[in-house]
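Entry 14. Structure prediction run on the chain below.
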Amino acid sequence: MEIVTAARPAPGAPSLRFDRNEWAGAFGDLGTDFPLVVGVTLAAGLDSTSVLTMFGLMQILTGLRYRLPMPVQPLKAMAALVITQKIGGSVLYGAGLAIGVVMLLLSISGVVDWLARVIPKSVVRGIQFGLGLQLAILALREYVQADGLMGLALAVVGFLLTVVLLGNRKYPAALFLVLLGLAYSLTVKVPTSALVEGLGVGLPKFHVPQWPDIVTGFLILALPQIPLSLGNSILATRQILEDLFPERRVTVRQIGTTYALMNLVNPFFGGIPTCHGSGGVAGHYTFGARTGGSVIIEGAFYMLLGLFFGRGFDTIVKVFPLPILGVILFFEGLALMRLIRDGAASAGDLTIILLVGLFAVGLPYGFLIGMLAGVALASLMKRGILTLGTREP
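Output returned:
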């Protein structure tokens, strides 16, 4: 049984780069990460220095380990429950430790390898399509409209700028988007003096999760998260890495193990539960990243905020306007949805992709229901019991 540590680079790993495209790619997942980090920190009453510093550290270690744009993201199902139900930090830390143990057992036992074999590619594509659709809807419904007409105008400018520059290696779109957002915030929303007042040095706080919090966290936060993590954080992430970096062999066991290790460390230092994710890979790659340099840059950014601006957290969150984050999030979602093109040649596969994706978006526990339904349909098709149609030549 193989246990992968964060300190050892993967075999055949490429050199890390820190050029302008890696810098641009570093912001490709900001639309997903930043609002969730902020929302969880405020809702659970967490220490912002601990949260930001540990979130950044996990990114840096992941970038060093994989040397690919392998993202670190907050656990989305957990984050949604914490934000909507105002669940406290102690239970959240307990849930993080619990899911770390579960994922470690699933990885070293080979269960994730078995899942990778039995879940067909069309189902994984459906999970990616559903997540992409979720991100795009969230971007358009919540983020783009967050600042009224002025914010909407900002989003339109950002969208047009991205359309013109997306894929441009000389003038990366994300750098101009971030500069546009900063200029807007510092002109309209946040005075520079407020940033200076929030400057100060802080360190993460040590915390030992207690058994009652671990049990409660497992039951109310970890269990709803596990299906999404297996589908998106592990299987779909492995698939998109295979799509974008076919020369690299990253296994589901490796991804599951680093996922587990992050959550076995985070709770003891006030960090929120984290995972990998196919959307983050798509976001980093779409905006220019090709190595782990982008993830290290993003991690350094969060560590800088945590160590030196933690006490000014309420001010810092206003520096990154939601309309600009919405534009980034929209293109991240679009990149995920485009992946279904390799299943479009088969009417059966396309039907499964669309059904899984729509179930994921439209139903409670949709990723679990979609995954189970997709596997069942694919099995019936393989045995010739069910025919979902064929495409005319």
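Confidence is low (pLDDT under 50) at residues 1-8.
Filed with the rest of this week's runs.
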